[in-house]
């Protein structure tokens, strides 16, 4: 037996996103990330096959829909269906998900049909032809003449499409609701017709009596939502002043919090010529004696990668320094440093005053930095001797 | 001049006050309101016109909508007047009486 | 639809976040702490430029979506319900990202504030808004 209704909605969005992600997984593969590329590719392929289309069919007393070539399907006996209506909920994406009053199955677009069962349960099915689907389900479920209801569905769909086009010029936020109301009104008009009155001419008469679609846009008026208060000049000025105050506060707050900076920077700097220059981090150790040149114990990432000590007691980081001490004005900590010569290179052991030290009272660890240049220029130094 | 066209434009202009006055007598759904208006001489409107008007009135806070289950199908969307709508209707009705009186005066040539 | 007050506020916050990011950029270290663990210790870093522009870019993308989508999709979807959601979400996200960006800046100039004081309250507000809105909006919309 041929299906009374069968339609497949292409999942354009799923197709596009899957193809983009497949290309991206190829890019990751080329970068050498095979372990990440393969699972990503397989997942994308699955999504593509699963959701490239959603097919709905009414046949032999059942409403059935399935994803892709037949992956995941659902069958509903028509006798269990009370009625159908356009989906009026809030879309939050595509696929299979629960929307507070039932499961929503869709692959593209913003339209769906709500199938309400006699038990009260609701199922929402995505489609790009909701009026035709509603008519097909209603007539199949309630035994209406298929040819007549198809004719009516066509006339109704055509009228609603023209109203939709007229309203889309205004982009009124209630356009969707207006379309839903008009659709319900048309259903009521159709329901009033006796079987012998269900003719093409009478259907056209109904849509004529509904009025030209252009009038909907004219009557709905200015596209503004209820709680959108007008944007007056006073509001704009107040907003600018408040935001300017916020921005100014954000700019000046650090200066207030770092007041001690000025005191520290005015302290006498005792020079240490051995410290001045550019240093590169090579290790992070528990104890100075644990460090062996050429052997890196720390397996993680270094927060401090390099540091330049300038002659004026400043550094390239937030620290200040004087002989034997590196001071963090913000943390109000003073760390010791030790310089050692090992295997022909100069190493700086910088006591790291982390939260473990200052709050938990633990023994400090040491950043080990190797001197790479006497120069304090930020850029590359020809004489720089960077650790390998 | 096309009289029919003038009548259509006049009815469109009066839709707000007509709909609000209808709702003042009790909440109703769009289809029911259209059927009532069809029975009143001179107020037959194009049926679809009521929905953008109701949407606009709801946007302006003059009416509110709610759902009511129906025995013969999907729930129906009912509309009712809000407090703001009642106050606005009072003002509109007063203004309407003023317009009626003014037009009557012009027709009779008073004050010209 | 004309621009709304909420949208104007969000655009204003976007401008503020851009201004403070540009202002503090020269003071940022080459490698910035940008992610913290549960105990407030930094465990994620980014290069200076990427770190400083990330939040403004995210906010810009979100503002574009929140402003454009309701204007083009009003006929296809129940935008009246979505509009309020995006409007509120935009404000919450704008404030959250501004606070996060400012925290990153302060941390990287040496003013260390526990990120939990900033992130947790805002995340709670954000999640509450999402859950509350979808629950109420779907209930109202599906009853019509």
What does this 3D model show about the protein?
- The complex is a heterotrimer of chains A (388), B (112) and C (144).
- Chain A is of the alpha+beta class.
- Chain A has 4 domains: 1-143, PH-domain like, CATH 2.30.29; 147-221, no CATH class; 234-266; 269-373.
- Chain A has 10 helices and 16 strands.
- In chain A, the strands form 3 sheets. In chain A, strands 11-10-16-15-14-13-12 form a 7-stranded antiparallel beta sheet, with no helix packed on it.
- In chain A, α4 (146-170) runs parallel beside α7.
- Chain A is elongated and about 105 Å long.
- Chain A starts with a strand and ends in a 15-residue tail after the last strand.
- Residues 261-265 and 379-388 of chain A have low confidence and may be disordered.
- With 112 residues, chain B is α+β, with helices and mostly antiparallel strands.
- Chain B has a single domain, classed as Orthogonal Bundle (Arc Repressor Mutant, subunit A), CATH 1.10.10.10.
- Chain B has 4 helices and 3 strands, in the order αβααββα.
- In chain B, a hairpin with a 2-residue loop joins β2 (63-70) and β3.
- Chain B starts with a helix and ends with a helix.
- Chain C has one domain (5-142).
- Chain C has helices at residues 5-24, 48-72, 79-108, 116-142; strands spanning 31-36, 42-47.
- Chain C has a two-stranded antiparallel ribbon with strand order 1-2.
- In chain C, a hairpin with a 5-residue loop joins β1 and β2 (42-47).
- In chain C, α3 runs antiparallel to α4.
- Chains in contact: A-B, A-C, B-C.
- Chains A and C meet through α4, α5 and α8 of A and α1, α2, α3 and α4 of C.
Question: Given the C-alpha coordinates, what overall shape of chain C results?
Answer: globular
Relative strand content of chain A: 25-35%
Instruction: Determine the number of helices of chain C (DSSP H or I, runs of at least 4 residues).
Output: 4
Query: Largest sheet of chain C at a glance?
Result: 2 strands, antiparallel
Percent of residues in helices of chain A:
25-40%
Domain module tally of chain A: 4
| Quaternary assembly | heterotrimer
Radius of gyration of chain A (Å): 36 Å
**Tally of DSSP β-strands of chain C:** 2
